[in-house]
Design brief:
Layout (H helix, E strand, L loop, with lengths): L7 H11 L27 E6 L15 E4 L30 H9 L5 E2 L2 E4 L6 H18 L4 E5 L2
Parallel strand pairs: 1-3, 1-4, 1-5
Antiparallel strand pairs: 2-4
Amino acid sequence: MNSPPVQYMQKSRAYYAAQGYEKPYRWANFETVPFAPLVKPLSQATVTLITTAMPVQDNRQGPKQVCSGSMHNPPQQLFNDDLFWDKDATHTDDLDSYFPIHHLQALTQSSRIGRLASQFHCAPTDYSQRRTLEADAPEILRRCREDKVDVALLVPL
């Protein structure tokens, strides 16, 4: 039996209204896109992952912060229970379904990808465009440049 498609925009607006936000959520809109073409073959590129899931922590307090983890020794799971998706239609029990680290490792071993960066990065989802643009994105960019990343695979959950 096929389920009807998830009406993501409507569900998101209803979610924000239920949280008590006075104004409806405004979807991000950028006049310029901060992406650049790849200047070398993927087989020579350094690749990282950026996800909206976070490391599993037992004592989470305060707002989420940008964090990073090892691409060569990845976690067995990431925390995502606080994120919004249709939990009736899917699950996140399989890490590679939303964080394809093992697929990237295999692509590196087969030389389709040059190498993996030393770290992946977790982008907080506090739904503040200003915080994302002014703090979180520049911090992730700094970390990617530190690792000499050529390609960042963005994997939102």
